[in-house]
Amino acid sequence: MPGEARFGYAEAVALVTTTIATKVFLSYPTAIEHIAGSAGWLLVCLTAIVAWLGFLLVIKLLERFPGKTLIEIAEAAGGPVTGIFTGMVLTAGILVMMAVALREFAENMVITALPQTPISVIMAVFVLCIALATYLGLEVIARACYVSYPFILTAVLAIVLLNYTNFNVNWLYPILGEGLDKILPAVVYRSSDYWELLVLAMIAPAVGEAKSIRRIGRSSLVISIVIFLSVIISANLVFSPAIANEPYLMLYKMARTVYLGRFVQRVEAIFVLIWGVGALLRLAVGFYLLVTVPVQALRLPDYRPFILPLGILLYAVAFIPPDLPTVFSLENHVLRSTVWIPYFFLPGLLLLLAVIRGKGGKRDIKT
Amino acid sequence: MISRLKKLLLLALLACLCLVGNGCWSSDEPDNFAYVLAIGVDKGEENRIKMTYLIANSKEMGAGKEGGDAAQKSLITSIETPSLFVTLNTVNTYIGRKLTLMHAKIIIFSEETARSGLMGSFVPAMGQYREVRGTMFIGVTKGKAADRINAIKPILETNPAKYIELVASSGVYTGFIPQTELLNTMYISLSSDGIEPVTMLFGPSREQAASEDSADDGGELTSDAEEPVGGAGSAGNGMTGEYRAEGDYVAGTLPREGGINFGAMGAAAFRGQVMVGEMTGDEVVAWGMLTGKYRTSIMSLIDPLVPDTVLSATVSEGRKPRVRVRLEDGKPYIDVEVTLEGDILGIQSLIDYQQPDKQPVLEAAYTEKLAGLINGIIKKSQEEFRSDIFGFGLYARRLYLTQEQWKAVHWEEIYPEAEINATVNFKIRRSGMLIQIMPIINPEAGVEEGDND
User: Fold this and answer.
1) Residues in chain A closer than 8 A to B412 (CB atoms)
2) Closest of A187, A178, A221 to residue A16, by C-alpha
3) Which of A181, A232, A241, B156 lies at a C-alpha separation of 20 to 30 Å from B245?
4) Maximum Cα interatomic distance, chain A, rounded to a whole number of Å
């Protein structure tokens, strides 16, 4: 349970950044290019600002209920029914998002490295690994994120830098890309690209007080923005906005584009390995939440009995999308268009409820 | 004890997972594959296209297999099929090993397929297949692509793949073929407004070209091997042969003897997905200078003070070209400033051009030649190709705020009417190993020892 784990600032930043930023291995860059064209950088920055505003609501909530997880806060603010309802809504949301992420990572493994391997086997391996990580607990996952974090970061930045010979600055123009009329409406709903900041509220007791969570959130957001901007801008510089729309796996395609003479080429083999580790860690964090959130909502003593049934459920749900285009559409058109709603409204409503009912804060502590 | 047992079980489980994940379905033995190194595409006679594959003979190319018969290093086969990728199956019916494009270095299209637009339509489709790399070289050949692939029998290299990479990369130091124009770059140029594709041009030796031309009506060898193709450097000067600039040739016309019946010289220019013309080596040099892709090459010049002799210098890019584009009443005005540097290699006339009064003369002569080349290819691109092969349109993108505004410009339509002003700055920076040149003593002409005025 989150309350049992303890880890520091660096581990927490690594965990949240890994959870947010591993999207660059998937269809995130392509989706951003599709909306904004050469102004992808603008969309990344604006969505991050909006996401930070949403996170400030979370911080306010955590300040009011120190040492509690989001589910515990919901229960404290609105009573047991609110706690259970919030837990169930979050569980359902995390299940769908993790199922889509699992399917995406598995599809990508088929595309990049294991074209002959049945996707069912790849997904089974993923599920078994993340189940094992969840069994070992949040602290192990956080420390694994911390250990692998420099490698993942280096791999991403190396791919970007090794492509410098292919950069053409002119591809960053027209400066507003597809135009503000297309970018601005996307700013709010694409802020859900940072919904993983909410993870900090779900594991709050493990990472500390609201003040340090705010610091962790800020650092994670800044590092994630740097990663996103590096990839989005370099994708434009290398492929042009017209072509950057196309690849399902932008970063993988960029890795395949590295050609620095006869000796420095074909670097994607290293990339696939690191990408696999990043995928596992992101899925492990998601699966841990999937298992612990309902346990907290139902006030059960141990989450471990939930690992097997929810693992099977996750595996089954991940098979529902019939094909890769559907997975892409689910991730970028359905989920991203809806996740921002709970991201903003859940902390907002809980805060409102707490204020109306006079729960939390110094007054509540005194009483 | 129980905890230890659990850990052991977990480790065993992880080990099994690794085996399951990596070992079974997607495994392949490297010696089960036939590695394609080069692909040729021609129009078919019995089917839509004719594909030619140069497949590495890994047994002959392995470590310690230096020398030997070049023909043994690779297997070449052609097959007519309806599409590119189905040939991977059909060739497997008789090759034995499984054909793979993982190590394919180059794809060469015949001029016929390039001019018909077939080549342009192939390029996007190729990028979809996971084995095809965007960093593959791409080019057009005079005559049949099958003949060019058949001619890849390197003598100095054990590995045909290395030979292909070295030839295709030679533009870095010759300037005669476009650099960095790969499958990816061609695809980007095909899909984006503001730039049109250029690919390297291959051809046979001149003797072979002549025989191919006479033997095969479909050979499409359009350039006359005996006549200069054009270019600002062409001039007569009373030497043993007529002076013709070293880059004033396209592939298949170079006056050479010996060597491999394969070469790269010049480029094919496209408008959209259709090849609309070809460029000589010198024109590619000028194209490189305008696009910022030129690095260095050795360039000859008729001596400005003694026109009977020729001198040469290494001409290098001083800095990236400065391009400014503006539109007035829908007409583009383009200013390009090209900055180059020279290093004198050899002066037959022994005139000491390092002297302060003579250096400007040489710089002016080189500037004139380079400006001629640059203006020549600009004119050709506007009048003959009607295609922005330099990517000036990319600079015009900066003038617009949104993609919609930029699309409304229809750059490809207004480029031929653009007014382009190219300026060349050429400075001699060095003079090889010498700081000054001493003359050959000639008492009859009054030239004495140490007299280099």
Assistant:
1) none
2) A221
3) B156
4) 73
Tokens of B99: 């054909």
Which of A117, A171, A250, A268 is best to mutate for the B interface (most B CBs within 10 A)? A117
DSSP state string for A132-172:
HHHHH-HHHHHHHHHHHHHHHHHHHHHHHHHTGGG--GGGG
Domain ranges of chain A: 2-366
Nearest to B134 among A118, A173, A256 (CB): A256
Q: Which residues does chain B have within 8 Å of residue A129's beta carbon, measured at their own beta carbons?
A: 14, 17
B192/A168 CB distance under 8 A: no
A274-312 core/surface letters (b: 16 or more CB in 10 A; e: else)? bbbbbbbbbbbbbbbbbbbbbbbbeeeeebeebbeebbe
Cis peptide before B307 (omega within 30 of 0): no
Name which of A364, A306, A345, A308 is nearest A89 in CA terms.
Answer: A345
Identify the bridge partners of residue B317 per DSSP, sorted by sequence position: B340
* Domains of chain B as residue ranges with CATH: 30-283 (no CATH), 295-453 (3.30.300.210)
**B410-433: per-residue pLDDT in tens?**
999 999 999 999 999 999 998 877
Task: Measure Cα distances from A37 to A149, A172, A174, A231 in Å.
Answer: 29, 9, 9, 13
Question: Considering CB atoms only, which of A124, A174, A241 is closest to B400?
Answer: A174
Question: Which residues 6+ apart lie within 8 Å of B235 measured at CB?
Answer: B243, B302
Residue B193 carries which DSSP code?
A: T
The label of the residue with tokens 């004139």 reads B368
User: How many residues are given for chain A?
Assistant: 367
Q: Which residues of chain B have a CB within 8 Å of the CB of A243?
A: 187-188, 191-192
- Which positions in chain A have a beta carbon within 8 angstroms of at least one beta carbon in chain B? 37-38, 111-118, 121-122, 124-125, 128-129, 132, 165-166, 168, 170-171, 173-180, 239-243, 253, 256-259, 262, 265
Kindly calculate the radius of gyration of chain B based on its CA atoms and give it in whole angstroms. 27
Inter-chain contact A253–B134, Cβ cutoff 8 Å? yes
Gap between the Cα atoms of A48 and A209, Å rounded: 23
Report the SS3 class of residue A231. helix
What confidence score (pLDDT) does residue B452 get?
Answer: 66
Q: Which of A128, A242, A243 sits opposite B17 (nearest CB)?
A: A128
Give tens-digit pLDDT for A113-153: 888 888 998 999 899 889 989 998 999 999 999 999 999 99
Residues of chain B with pLDDT under 70: 1-2, 8, 12, 15-24, 61-72, 180, 209-241, 451-453
Compute the distance between CA of residue B184 and CA of residue A238 in angstroms, rounded to an integer: 10
CB proximity B160 to A under 8 Å: no
**Chain B residue with the nearest C-alpha to that of A262:** B165
Of B25, B188, B400, the CB nearest to A239: B188
ipTM field: 0.86
Contact assessment for residue B259 and residue B205, using Cβ atoms and an 8 Å cutoff: yes
Report the residue of B324, B397, B399 to disrupt the A interface, i.e. the one with the largest count of A CBs within 10 Å: B397
> CA of B116, closest CA in chain A: separation in Å?
24
CA dihedral A218, A224, A225, A229 (to 10 degrees): 170
Distance CA B158, CA B62 (A): 9
Q: What does the buried/exposed string (b/e) look like for B374-400 if buried means 16 or more CB atoms within 10 Å of the residue's CB?
A: bbbbbebbbeebbbbbbbbbbbbbbeb
In what order do the strands lie in the sheet containing B310-328?
B296-302, B310-328, B331-347, B419-430
pLDDT digits (tens, 9 = 90+) for A294-309: 999 998 989 999 999 9
- When CB atoms are compared, the residue of B130, B188, B398 closest to A173 is B398
Among B133, B134, B403, select the one facing A174 at the smallest CB separation: B403
Decide: helix, strand or coil at residue B117: coil
Q: Which CATH class is domain A2-366?
A: mainly alpha
